[in-house]
Each structure stands twice: as C-alpha cells, then as structure tokens.
Amino acid sequence: MSDLFRLTIEDAADLLARREISAVELTSAHLDRIATHDTRLNSFITVTADHALAQARAADNELARGARRSPLHGIPIALKDLYDTAGVRTTAGATFFAERMPDVDARAVTLLYQAGAVLLGKLNMHEWALGVTNINPHYGPSRNPWDTSRITGGSSGGAAAALAAGLCMGALGSDTGGSIRIPASLCGIVGFKPTFGRVSLQGVVPLSWNLDHAGPMARTVTDAALLLQAIAGYDPDDPVSVAAPVDDLLASIDAGVGGWRIALADDAHFGNADAEVLASVHRAAGVFEELGARVERVDLGRGQDAAQMNALMTTSDAAAFHRDRLRAHPEQFGADVRMRLERGAAFTSTEYILARRFQSEWRRQLERLFEQFDVLLTPTTPITALPIEGLDSVEAARQLTRCTAPFNLAGLPALSAPCGMSAAGLPIGLQIVAAPWREAHVLRAGKAFERATSWHRQTPPGW
C-alpha cells in the first residue's frame, strides 16, 4: 500500500489488526519520510531507527499470534524531547542535557510501550519548553510545513511539524501555557491538554511543577483520544497526579452535541484576534448550532489577568528549577530563555502568592461557567504562524499564549482542532474547553465538529 504515512492511527490500527499491513512496513514508511524530508523541517532531535524497527518486528510477531495489546500496537509515534527514554538521550532542547541518557522511561512512555507503540525518535522543542516559537538556538528552529519560513509554534513544535508533514502518526507533547495547542493551531493538527493531574508527569523534564500538563498530539480527534486513553490515569510516583476515574474516551465520542449549551468567548481579551481568526471561530460556532447545540456569547472578564498570572508562575517556577544552572552557567541558555528566567527570578513572594490566589478564584469562576455550559469555544491562537526571521520570541509568547494560558492556570481540559485557513494559506485553530475531568466531553465536541467539516483533511502543499 502506498502513502502509508497518510493513514490515521484509527485506520492503521484496523489494517494492522487484519494483517493487511505490517508494523515494519508502517514504521519503515515513516522512517523514510523522516530521512527524506526532515532536513527541511528539523522536527526531530534524535531518530531511533534501529529501536523503532526492533519494536515493529516485535509488534508484528505479537499481532501474528493474535496478542493485540491495544489500538496503538505497531503504531509509530514520536516524543517531545523532554520525556525520559531509557537508553535514548533526552535533551529538553538544551545544551546542558545534550548527552543526557536516562536510565528509566517516563511513566507515559512506559504506558505507550505497554500499549505496543513504536518509537520513531525524539522531537525538537523550544529550549527547556520555555517559549512558543520553537526557534531553538542549540538545535535549530523547527519549520512549519505550511510555509517553512514560518514558525511551528511551541514548545512542542517539532511534534506539530512532524504530524502535519506525515513524519509520525501521533506524538506526546507538554503544555504549560499552550505548548501543545499553539503548535497544533499553527500547523493544522489536533492537540489536547487534559485536566491537570490526568496524565503522569513522572520522568518529564519540568518547566513549572504547578502548571505542566502532558498530552497527545495527532491528526484527528479520534487519534488523540486513542493516545490519551493509553496514558491517562493515576500515578502514585507523580506528586500532582490525581486518582480520578478515567472514562472510556471512545464510548461516546460519536454521540454528537445535539441539545448541548455551548459558550463562545466574546470579550475584549479573547476577541483581540486577527479578523480571519475570529471569522473562522465564529463560523465554527455556527457549525455547532447546525449540529443542534445552542451557542451563547459570554464575557469571561478576567482572561488577560489569567494569562499574566500564568506567565508569572511559569517563569518563577522555571527560575526555581534552573536556579543552580542559571547561577553557574547563564551563558549556556538561549537569550530569550535566559531573559524569561531572570524575569521569573525577580518576582517577589508576595506577587507569587497573589498569583496563586488569583488562580483559585479563576478556577472557581470557570467551574461555575461549566455548571451552565457543556463546553466553551475560543480561538486557540489570535494570529497565524509568524515568520521565523527576526522574530522576538519573548513578544511572540505574549501574543500566542493569550487564549491558551488561562486554561493552564485553571487546569482545565482544552483541545485545539483546525477550523479554517487564512488568505495566506495558514491554518487557524479552534479551542474547545470543558470542566475538570470532562475530557470525553471535549473529544465528543471536537469529533462532532470534525465530522461536519473537512479542515482536518487539509495537508500542506507539497508534502
């Protein structure tokens, strides 16, 4: 079969189960794509070809015996390079960890391996995950397949580029202020940040102990659900993991949104976006109405404050984690990351405590909102992908996290799905948010929108 790289996880899983394709064929097709195209995208830091083929052969042997582990069995995926992988270097996009070789896998990686997934390699990212452009001074910038002169977004930018260009079938990213959803929006894929505490952070290099979320990235909502189903759950070795029941995320994913009450953010903060972005999001809201939902505009009121408090906590927490490195070797950090770390270190304890108090108030405000509404719609990013050349990564972070960071602060599940294209041919993302632990609700809304539209089928020209 040609064009194996264009298959969804869902479709490839069915073909693998029926033995119409092999895991080795599927993995080889993606390794060939990486070898041929990643010189243009720079989406991978490390490619694990031998490891991947060994896993694929093992998967084929098990599938031939009828020992299918999960729908991910034999599926080639990749990991943002801050997930620890035993025997495979994990750099976090930094020179400090350039040769770091973990002894054990991150918990989420272990769960993927138990599900039978195949690891193609480790993906490029913004240095230490502290930024959203993926312009990495040490490993080079990742480039957007829709226009290679433009950013992918970040910090999980390598994942978004690789998925959009067919270099992997699924990926894990991390999200502290939007780092899964921003690159998903800019590259036209699906990115899902689950509820804080839903997926273990054990073995994930931290940015903020209080705001980090691990989650899936894929080309469709169903594929994201399959990945999340494999990695969600309580981990006693992660101090912020929560022992909340995990739903069957596929059980109601096709049930639609008929009769739902949906909020559309319509205020000075979330409405401060390019006209093309707003038009696409409003058209998306219209699709939900056509599907039988009632859409109402709401003023969230304090979104700007929430984004600012998230930035304060992120940089303060990061400065605490990097305090020894920042003191001993400041020159080894990229200029934008060093600037943000120094800014974080300068915040006072009073400022941090006030941010934590605001976090509690903001979370309660949104919980009350979701007593009335099933989901909330906003733009994922207020703008489309910016040019790499001459870009100020610090200013870009302020712009690009505008709509995503408030939901990191609240710890709510939030998904980005493609909902349009700009006149310049660049993807636009729709953000769907729900109450804590309502991942199944978010996925159900996303799947309903995806079935009614064709944006997820768009592929970058020439790829």
TrEMBL record:
PROSITE patterns: AMIDASES. InterPro entries: Amidase, Amidase_CS, Amidase_dom, AS_sf. Gene3D superfamilies: Amidase signature (AS) domain. Keywords: Hydrolase. It is an enzyme of class 3 (hydrolase). Residues 25-443 form the Amidase domain. Pfam families: Amidase. GO terms for molecular function: amidase activity. The keyword Transmembrane does not apply. This is Amidase. It comes from Roseiflexus castenholzii (strain DSM 13941 / HLO8).
